[in-house]
Amino acid sequence: MLTVDDYARIRRAHFQDGLGIREIARQFHHSRRKIREVLLKSEPSGYPPRLSPAPKLDPLKVIIDAILTEDQLAPPKQRHTASRIFSRLRCEHGYPGGYDQVRRYVQSHRRRTRETFIPLDHDPGQRPEADFGQIWVDFPDGRRQVSVMIVTWAWSYASFAIALPTQRTEAILHGLTKAFEFFGCVPRELWWDNPTTVAIEILPGRQRKLNERYLALASHYNFEPLFCMPARGNEKPRVENRVKDLERRLATPVPLAESLDRLNDYLIQCCREDFKRPHEHQSLCRPKSAVGLCGWCAP
């Protein structure tokens, strides 16, 4: 669209400089028809007011909003798709319009109501995050899936990984003990998702009924056991990224190992080497040489 300034320059070229329409069209890269339109008026008239792109859908948008609001309380796999909303509008409300209008409105509604996350930073020595990943490993007796527990510091992004025979409570306790030995310190708090071997029952808010042996471990090492809200894995993003890194980098191609102990030697070596390289998710404050991997205590 031509601006008022464009109109002024074209009109000056014709009325003051005496240029013809053909020459002005060549210089300003517009058609002669457009130049004639500009010469007839001193400024652009603007676009006419836009009509609603979906006039048949307008009366039913309130109903779509109500359906999408109710979906927030429904199970994730039983929420309305745009196609299902379109079917309901036709059957229950006699909607005469097309599917594309419904689909575009549903997409715009979901963009407006999309949840926003604010990245958080944490003090050194305060918070590691723990989770399990699953990888395939080739052992002498064949290929089998192995559970790997990963503990990642939120401040330094330093990680510890250990392959365990199971994800039971006793395996978790053993893995955490080894993690504290590896880091050379104990955190103020330790975050998990909500594994049933650790959090026996989910209570309102962040309250949990804990496995007694895990609670005894927390009491022994004097750290606070904390948990993400249900279905909120984004609350522990460092270890979530580490699980993906385990699968896509450390376990690709499929590693060869004589035993679980040899696999753990490989994982420990990877953890030590990995801490030397920068990470895009890492805190801007890297631990100095006189500080441990947790960023809190001396090594």
Fold and architecture overview:
This protein is an alpha+beta fold and 299 residues long. It folds into 3 domains: 4-40, no CATH class; 58-112, no CATH class; 128-274, Nucleotidyltransferase, domain 5 (2-Layer Sandwich), CATH 3.30.420.10. 40% of the residues lie in helices and 15% in strands. The protein is built from 10 helices and 7 strands. α2 crosses α3 (32-40). The longest helix is centred in the middle third of the chain and has 15 residues, at 169-183.
Please describe the structure with a list of short key phrases separated by commas or semicolons:
three-stranded antiparallel beta sheet; about 300 residues; Nucleotidyltransferase, domain 5; disordered C terminus; two-stranded parallel sheet; alpha+beta
